[in-house]
Amino acid sequence: MHRVLSCSVLLLAVVLPVYSFAAAEDEPVTQRVSLSDDEVKRLVQRLDDEKYAVRDAASKRLASGDAAVATALGKAVKADKLELSYRIIEILDTMRRGQHEATRDAAKKAMEILGKHKDKAIARRTLTALATDEPLSEEASFDHIQLFGGLRRIEFGQGGGISIGGDSVRIGKGSQIVQSQMADGEQLVVVHQGGGRKIMIRASDKGIGVVVQELTEDGTVEENRYEAADEEELAEKHPVGHSYYEAYKKYKGGTVMGGMPAE
Q1: pLDDT, tens digit (0-9, with 9 covering 90-100), for 179-194
Q2: Considering its fold, how many domains does the chain have in total?
């Protein structure tokens, strides 16, 4: 249990949606198509074609497939073909959002497996996609995060990278998870960093507020709050707070997992 040293707390009691991939088709497919193994293989190969029209047609055809196609697509992801694999993940994400229950379930299962892929780029891309329709209520304590439909405990690690398992999220040193939204003219950003730091930013035409919580060596949580009428005043009165705002003001919607900016 962490002890907060300051009683000054900025509560971001909001629901933050997260980043969504572009769908492989314009409208959800209600009737699913059964494709042979050979046809799936041919279509997957076309996803790597140099011509956009060929790739687009293959994406739409695969996205119309049934549960068996979703399962096959999950197995077609290869670490040595990242761009092709990313397109497959986008297709699976589209299928996961469709109206056919069996196909949705198969696509979700395939993506959950890919979320544990040994290739970190593929795993991260998949986990980010899986987070796209999960609501996030940022009322969590310092060492918890609302992610993938549930409140998860944060483990701060010395090594790099981000791993998710069970009810916990491990954020290694040098890594971070950024969640943000623009709503009713207000920008909301919440950042969890592996070094033991949480940053919360609220910005609108009414002013800017920045709260920074950091885990100290003795296990307590130190909190600092910075407020100003606008960015110019924030930079003048609170240069430390402004440095955080400057680093994260570009985030205006979604969930991003990756490395921390240089300090």
Answers
A1: 888 878 889 899 999 8
A2: 2
